[in-house]
């Protein structure tokens, strides 16, 4: 079984602790990405949206999952189940070291997740402690002025990857 860890990085200027508004395990934060079918290799046209608070029962077996989707090309059904408790905010130290921070772990059956989309609903804080909330990163960049630190703050060069975890 292979899980996929979503990892993000960015250039944070005078900022730290970039994360979804309610933390990595925010039940209403939408994780958006495409799905590549494990059987026929077809990439879904549109991004799929999953969030921890949205669950559906598994057709076979017990428990719930976050998404059941059928491949439009080969009709195979796959699931995406989110595994909370594995993420943490992206810090200034990560960025200085060129590192990625893990956000969320996905158990994908029949699919491979591809191309995470940042979207809206993020928060970050300045190195002086000023909080910036409800940030929309769908435009790739965020820039503001930190009154307390009297310096410009910026998020740019957003990057993401889905790393296979055995
Ligand atoms: Zn398929």
UniProtKB/TrEMBL annotation:
<comment type="similarity">
    <text>Belongs to the UPF0587 family.</text>
</comment>
<keyword id="KW-0862">Zinc</keyword>
<dbReference type="GO" id="GO:0008270">
    <property type="term" value="F:zinc ion binding"/>
</dbReference>
<keyword id="KW-0479">Metal-binding</keyword>
<protein>
    <recommendedName>
        <fullName>CXXC motif containing zinc binding protein</fullName>
    </recommendedName>
</protein>
<dbReference type="InterPro" id="IPR008584">
    <property type="entry name" value="CXXC_Zn-binding_euk"/>
</dbReference>
<dbReference type="Pfam" id="PF05907">
    <property type="entry name" value="CXXC_Zn-b_euk"/>
</dbReference>
């Amino acid at each position: 079984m292979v899980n996929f860890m979503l990892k993000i990085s960015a250039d944070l200027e005078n900022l730290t602790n970039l994360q979804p508004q309610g933390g990595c395990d925010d039940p209403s934060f939408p994780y958006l990405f495409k799905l590549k079918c494990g059987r026929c290799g077809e990439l879904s046209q549109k991004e799929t949206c999953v969030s921890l608070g949205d669950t559906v029962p598994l057709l076979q077996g017990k428990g719930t999952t976050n998404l059941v989707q059928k491949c439009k090309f080969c009709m195979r059904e796959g699931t995406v189940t989110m595994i909370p408790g594995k993420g943490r905010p992206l810090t200034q130290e990560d960025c200085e070291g060129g590192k990625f921070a893990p956000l969320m772990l996905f158990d994908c059956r029949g699919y491979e997740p591809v191309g995470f989309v940042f979207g809206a609903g993020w928060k970050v804080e300045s190195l002086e402690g000023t909080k910036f909330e409800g940030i929309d990163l769908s435009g790739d960049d965020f820039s503001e002025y930190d009154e307390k630190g009297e310096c410009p703050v910026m998020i740019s060069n957003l990057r993401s990857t889905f790393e296979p975890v055995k």
